[in-house]
């Protein structure tokens, strides 16, 4: 009974609103299809609702109300291009209708046509302020890097909803991104004032104080977050990162194991436990934690660290697989590019591929001494000694590493320059005694001896 009463009211509204001109009069068949559409829509049969609205539109194609109803169903069914076309027509027929612009903007948001979405939502909000669309506009401004406009829109929302703690929280995140840390701090504190049990704002304050090296306040807010929400991983993650940055690995590990003991696990928690165990040379445990972290979601650095763990365990095949996966996920991961390339050089295999990988790493980080050393060694392996010399000399100027001295020794020895070879090998031995290098120095000395 209530449904039919509602439909009757809608039909009366529909007819009365369109009775002023001949073009707006809805024909009986259009009304019939429209009512069918409402019935289907009320029972959540959206496919038939759409079919009915479209049939109604064929009878009355200039009806902006019908166009909006049709567009909303298309939007719900994720037929965004069709919805966009319908809403555009609705707006052209009724340019004073805020809802038409807002729906069009929302459709363009889903189509990732962000500038168009901004323009149409702005137009709609000029006609009528709708808070849900104002919030979408905030997101659009952030996506497109228009932070000042986003901040202005957040202030409008906060003026309308001064008791909404999430608005202050999101506003604080924006201000933090803008580098306005003092204002961000105020926003997070206001969020806590409104809702003292919201752990997220405590974590954000902990992060801010961590950046400011305000040790006491950072620890306090991280611990407050953990106390308020002991099953939320973010408090443990923040406190552990705080300790790791300060090389307080025992406290970091204690924090993370406490989280696991309470049944709170996350990708970052397992990842950090993996890093700590790797640092402590507990490679089997590191492997376990990295693999656990992968269950929460993969990323390039996670695969990279699992790869170097396998390398420490002398599982070269698995190391290579991990490095390739790391590069597949992020082709700009210069750490993985160099590591895999240099590992191939050590194994004396796939020298051309190794050279390409290392060259990419150097392109991404041209001032990195370790990568320049790798490139120089790759040229050595290819028999291009002058180029090897060039990059190894550059590497030696960028970074202290006895291995660079060792590489230079081999290059000069291969270039029949035993004096320079002995010089660089001798420097290498000052820091890393190696029997192999001592033997090479003796060979070089023999080159200097006059032939009898």
Give keywords.
disordered N terminus, Serine Threonine Protein Phosphatase 5, Tetratricopeptide repeat, TPR-like_helical_dom_sf, 78% helix, TPR_rpt, TPR repeat, signal, mainly alpha
Please describe what this structure looks like.
With 452 residues, the chain is an all-alpha fold. The protein has a domain at 1-128: Serine Threonine Protein Phosphatase 5, Tetratricopeptide repeat, CATH 1.25.40.10. It contains 26 helices and no strands. The protein is elongated and about 115 Å long. InterPro entries: TPR-like_helical_dom_sf, TPR_rpt.
Q: Quick one: overall form?
A: elongated
- Under CATH at level 1, the class of one domain stands as Mainly Alpha
Q: Which sequence of SSEs, written as H and E, runs from N to C?
A: HHHHHHHHHHHHHHHHHHHHHHHHHH
Q: Provide the CATH superfamily of one domain.
A: Tetratricopeptide repeat domain
Quaternary assembly: single chain
CATH architecture of one domain: Alpha Horseshoe
Structure summary, number of beta strands? 0
Unreliable runs, pLDDT <50, ≥5 residues? 1-26
* Cα end-to-end separation: 119 Å
Largest sheet: none
Helix count equals 26
């Amino acid at each position: 009974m209530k449904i039919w009463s509602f439909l009757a009211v809608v039909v009366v509204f529909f007819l009365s609103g369109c009775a002023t001109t001949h073009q707006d009069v809805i024909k009986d068949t259009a009304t019939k299809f429209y009512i069918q559409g409402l019935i289907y829509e009320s029972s959540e049969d959206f496919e038939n609702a759409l079919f009915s609205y479209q049939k109604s539109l064929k009878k009355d194609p200039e009806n902006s109300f019908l166009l909006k109803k049709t567009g909303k169903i298309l939007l719900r069914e994720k037929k965004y291009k069709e919805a966009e076309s319908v809403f555009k027509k609705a707006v052209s027929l009724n340019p004073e209708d805020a809802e038409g612009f807002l729906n069009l903007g929302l459709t363009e948001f889903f189509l990732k046509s962000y500038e168009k979405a901004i323009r149409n939502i702005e137009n709609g909000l000029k006609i009528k302020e709708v808070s849900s669309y104002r919030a979408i506009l905030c997101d659009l401004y952030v996506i497109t890097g228009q932070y000042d406009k986003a901040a202005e829109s957040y202030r409008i929302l906060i003026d309308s909803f001064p008791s909404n703690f999430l608005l202050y929280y999101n506003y604080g995140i924006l201000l933090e991104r803008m580098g306005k840390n003092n204002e961000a701090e105020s926003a997070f504190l206001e969020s806590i004032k409104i809702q003292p049990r919201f752990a997220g704002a405590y974590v954000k304050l902990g992060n801010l104080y961590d950046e400011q090296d305000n040790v006491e306040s950072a620890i306090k807010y991280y611990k407050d977050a953990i106390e308020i929400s002991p099953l939320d991983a973010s408090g443990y993650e923040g406190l552990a990162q705080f300790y790791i940055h300060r090389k307080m690995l025992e406290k970091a590990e204690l924090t993370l194991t406490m989280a696991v003991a309470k049944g709170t696990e996350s990708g970052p928690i397992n990842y950090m436990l993996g890093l700590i165990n790797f640092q402590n040379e507990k490679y089997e445990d590191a492997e376990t934690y990295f693999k656990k972290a992968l269950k929460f979601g993969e990323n390039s650095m996670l695969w990279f660290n699992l790869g170097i763990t396998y390398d420490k365990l002398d599982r070269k095949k698995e190391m290579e697989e991990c490095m390739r996966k790391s590069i597949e996920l992020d082709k700009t991961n210069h750490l993985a590019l160099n590591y895999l390339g240099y590992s191939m050089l050590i194994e004396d295999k796939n020298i051309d591929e190794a050279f390409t990988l290392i060259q990419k790493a150097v392109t991404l980080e041209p001032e990195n001494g370790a990568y320049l050393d790798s490139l120089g060694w790759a040229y050595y392996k290819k028999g291009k000694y002058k180029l090897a010399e060039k990059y190894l000399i550059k590497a030696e100027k960028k970074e202290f590493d006895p291995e660079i001295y060792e590489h230079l020794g081999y290059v000069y020895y291969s270039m029949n320059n035993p004096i320079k070879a002995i010089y660089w090998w001798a420097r290498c031995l000052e820091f890393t005694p190696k029997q192999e290098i001592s033997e090479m120095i003796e060979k070089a000395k023999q080159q200097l001896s006059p032939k009898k």
